[in-house]
Write a structure and sequence with these properties.
The complex is a heterodimer.
Chain A (H helix, E strand, L loop, with lengths): L5 H27 L3 E2 L5 E2 L5 H7 L1 H34 L3 H12 L6 H12 L4 H6 L12 H26 L3 H8 L4 H12 L1 H16 L3 H7 L6 H10 L5 H28 L5
Antiparallel strand pairs in A: 1-2
Helix pairs in contact in A: 2-13, 3-7, 3-10, 3-12, 5-7, 5-11, 7-10, 7-11, 8-9, 10-13, 12-13
Chain B lengths: L2 H32 L15 H8 L1 H34 L5 H13 L2 H22 L6 H26 L4 H8 L4 H30 L2 H6 L9 H9 L7 H26 L2
Helix pairs in contact in B: 1-11, 2-11, 3-6, 3-8, 4-6, 6-8, 7-8, 8-11, 10-11
The chains are: A mainly alpha, B mainly alpha.
Chain lengths: 280, 273
C-alpha cells in the first residue's frame, strides 16, 4: 500500500464527474423539495415542509405508496417461491452443468428491460397467448391493466436478482451436513427446514433486498403493464416532472422520500449484503 | 426413499422447467411477432420479413439508432478512463477522505435509477442550462444525456476493475518500483497491461448499460424532447393506440445486439484466461 500524491490525482477526474453529475443534482433535488411551486411552474426558493406534508397526504400518495410496498413484497415472495427450488436444483447438478444452467437464468436479464416488459405486453393483452391459454377453462383474465399483470412483469424482471445470491450460498453449502441429518433419521423435509434453509439465510436476505429495493422505484413495468390503473411511486414521481400537471418541488420531495426509504433498507441490511458478497 | 421426499424432488424439477419456460417464452413470442406481416404489432398476419424491411428504411429508427450508438460510444470511452483511474486510486492508495470518495463512487449503483434521473432533470433545467445561458452558451440534449451515462457507467467500470485489482499480484508492481521505475511508469508499463481484460469487460458493461438505459435519457431530456434513443422510441410507440409493427422488429434487433455483446464479452473472457 503506497501513500503518495498519485492516488488523489488519479481519482480526481472521476470524482469530479460524480460530484457534478450525481451529488450536485441530488443536492439540488433536496433543496427543491423544500421550495415552493408558483403558478406557471416557476419555483420560489424558500424553506417549507409543505411538499413533504402533501407527499404524505392521503390524496396524493397512499395509493402509490401502498401499491409499491405490497407489489414489492409480493414480487419478492414470488421470486423466492420460483427461485429457491431453481437455485437448489442448479446447486445440486454436476459442476459442468451448473455454469450453463445459471447462465440461462441470467441471459434474458442481460437484455433490455423495456424490451422484455414490452414482450409481456404482447403476451398479457386480452387477445394474447395467456388469455387464450386459460380460456378453455372458462377463465376470463384481464391481466393487462391489473396489478397481477404488473406483478408478473416484475417477477420476470427481477428473478435473477433472487436466484444469484441464493445459488451463491447454496453452492457453498456443505451437503455432508445434510447427509449426516439423513443418517440420523431426518426426512428430506426436516433436513431442508432444519439444516439447508437456515444455512442459506444470507442468500435469502440478500436476494430479498436486491428484489425489493429496485421494485420500489419501478416505473416501466407499472406504466406498460398497468395501463395507468396501477399507480406506483415511480409513476407518481414521473407525473410530477413530465405529466400534464407538473409540480417539481412535490416530485422532488417524493424522490427524496424514496431515496430515504431505500437508504433505510440498505443501512439496516448492509452487513447481510456484505456477507453474501454483494457489496465489496 | 419416502413418498414425501419423491414428491419434493418432483416439485423442484417441475419448478425448474417452469422457470426456464417462463424466462424464454416472452423472448420467443417477441421474436416470432417481429416476423409477422400486417399493419399492427399485436395481430399475427403470417410470416414475413416486411417489418424488417420497413425498419431499415425508417428514418426515425435510423435517427434513434444513431443517437443510441453515439451516446453509448462516447459515454463508454469517458466512463472507462475515469472508472479505471478511480478503481486504481481506491484500491492501490490510501488517502484522507477515502471512505467518503468510496461512498460517492457507489452512489449511482445504490440509489434508485429514477431518483438519479430526477436529480439530473432538475440539475440541467434549474442549474446547468441557466448557468451556461449566462455566458451565452446553449446545451443540447446529447451532452446532457451523455453526462448521465458517463456517471453511472464509470461506477460500474470502477467495480469491475477494482475486483480484478483485488486479486492481482502486487509483487510485479513493487518489483518495478524497487528497480527504480517512477510511479507513472509503473502505472503505464505494469498495472495497466495487467488490467486490460478487466477494463475491457468494464467497458462492455458500460456500453450495454448505456444502450439499455431508459430512465436517465428520458428524464434528462425532459421526456425525450428532441432526442430519442432506441428504448425511448419503443416506449413512445408502445403508448400509442395502434402500435406499429416496427416496434417488434426494433425490440427484436435490440435483443440481438445485447446477445452479441454478451457473446463478445464471453469470448474475450475466454481469451483473457
Amino acid at each position: 500500500m503506497r501513500s503518495n500524491a498519485l492516488g488523489p490525482k488519479l481519482l480526481l477526474p472521476g470524482l469530479l464527474w460524480l460530484l457534478v453529475f450525481v451529488v450536485l443534482p441530488l443536492l439540488i433535488m433536496v433543496s427543491i423539495s423544500f421550495a415552493r411551486r408558483l403558478p406557471g411552474g416557476l419555483i420560489e426558493w424558500t424553506f417549507t415542509l409543505e411538499n413533504y406534508a402533501r407527499a404524505l397526504d392521503a390524496l396524493y400518495l397512499v395509493g402509490p405508496v401502498a401499491n409499491s410496498l405490497w407489489l414489492a413484497a409480493l414480487t419478492t415472495v414470488g421470486c423466492f417461491v420460483l427461485g429457491y427450488p431453481l437455485a437448489y436444483y442448479i446447486a445440486r447438478r454436476p459442476p459442468r452443468w451448473r455454469a450453463l444452467l445459471l447462465f440461462l437464468v441470467v441471459l434474458p436479464f442481460l437484455t433490455n428491460f423495456l424490451v422484455r416488459i414490452y414482450a409481456w405486453f404482447i403476451l398479457l393483452r386480452p387477445e394474447g397467448w395467456i388469455a387464450a391459454l386459460v380460456k378453455p377453462f372458462g377463465v376470463e383474465m384481464a391481466l393487462l391493466g391489473s396489478p397481477w399483470g404488473v406483478l408478473i412483469g416484475l417477477v420476470y424482471g427481477y428473478l435473477p436478482f433472487m436466484v444469484l445470491p441464493l445459488y451463491a450460498t447454496l453452492e457453498k453449502l456443505d451437503f455432508t451436513l445434510v447427509e449426516a441429518a439423513h443418517d440420523l433419521g431426518a426426512t428430506r423435509w426436516q433436513s431442508f427446514w432444519r439444516v439447508i434453509f437456515p444455512l442459506s439465510r444470507p442468500g435469502v436476505i440478500a436476494g430479498a433486498i436486491l428484489v425489493f429495493i429496485p421494485v420500489l422505484g419501478e416505473f416501466l413495468a407499472p406504466k406498460l403493464l398497468g395501463g395507468g390503473k396501477v399507480p406506483m411511486i415511480g409513476i407518481t414521481i414521473e407525473e410530477q416532472f413530465l405529466g400534464r400537471v407538473q409540480n417539481w418541488p412535490l416530485g422532488a420531495a417524493m424522490a427524496v422520500g424514496l431515496m430515504l426509504l431505500v437508504s433505510l433498507v440498505l443501512v439496516r441490511y448492509f452487513k447481510q449484503l456484505k456477507e453474501a458478497r454483494w457489496v465489496s | 426413499m419416502r413418498k414425501l421426499d419423491r414428491w419434493i424432488d418432483l416439485c423442484i424439477k417441475i419448478d425448474a422447467i417452469f422457470v426456464y419456460l417462463f424466462l424464454y417464452l416472452p423472448i420467443f413470442v417477441l421474436v416470432l411477432y417481429s416476423f409477422s406481416a400486417g399493419r399492427y404489432a399485436l395481430v399475427w398476419g403470417g410470416f414475413s420479413l416486411e417489418t424488417y424491411q420497413k425498419v431499415l428504411r425508417d428514418p426515425e429508427v435510423a435517427q434513434a439508432l444513431g443517437n443510441s450508438v453515439a451516446v453509448a460510444l462516447s459515454a463508454t470511452l469517458v466512463a472507462t478512463v475515469l472508472g479505471t483511474l478511480l478503481a486504481i486510486a481506491l484500491e492501490r492508495y490510501r488517502f484522507r477522505g477515502q471512505t467518503l470518495v468510496e461512498s460517492v463512487s457507489y452512489l449511482p449503483i445504490l440509489i434508485p435509477e429514477i431518483v438519479m434521473a430526477v436529480g439530473l432533470l432538475l440539475f440541467f433545467a434549474q442549474f446547468f442550462r441557466p448557468a451556461l445561458g449566462l455566458v451565452g452558451l446553449e446545451l443540447g440534449p446529447f451532452p446532457s444525456v451523455m453526462a448521465g451515462h458517463v456517471a453511472f457507467g464509470l461506477s460500474y467500470v470502477m467495480v469491475v476493475v477494482r475486483a480484478r485489482l483485488q486479486h492481482m499480484d502486487r509483487s510485479l508492481e513493487e518489483a518495478a518500483l524497487d528497480l527504480g521505475a517512477r510511479p507513472w511508469q509503473v502505472f503505464y508499463r505494469v498495472t495497466l497491461p495487467m488490467l486490460a481484460p478487466a477494463i475491457l469487460s468494464g467497458a462492455l458493461l458500460a456500453f450495454t448499460l448505456s444502450l439499455d438505459d431508459f430512465y436517465i435519457t428520458y428524464f434528462s431530456t425532459a421526456g425525450g424532447t428532441g432526442f430519442q434513443t432506441l428504448p425511448l422510441y419503443i416506449y413512445f410507440l408502445q403508448g400509442r393506440a395502434g402500435i406499429p409493427p416496427q416496434v417488434n422488429a426494433v425490440a427484436a434487433l435490440m435483443l440481438l445486439v445485447s446477445l452479441s455483446l454478451i457473446a463478445l464479452s464471453l469470448w474475450m473472457q475466454r481469451r483473457g484466461g
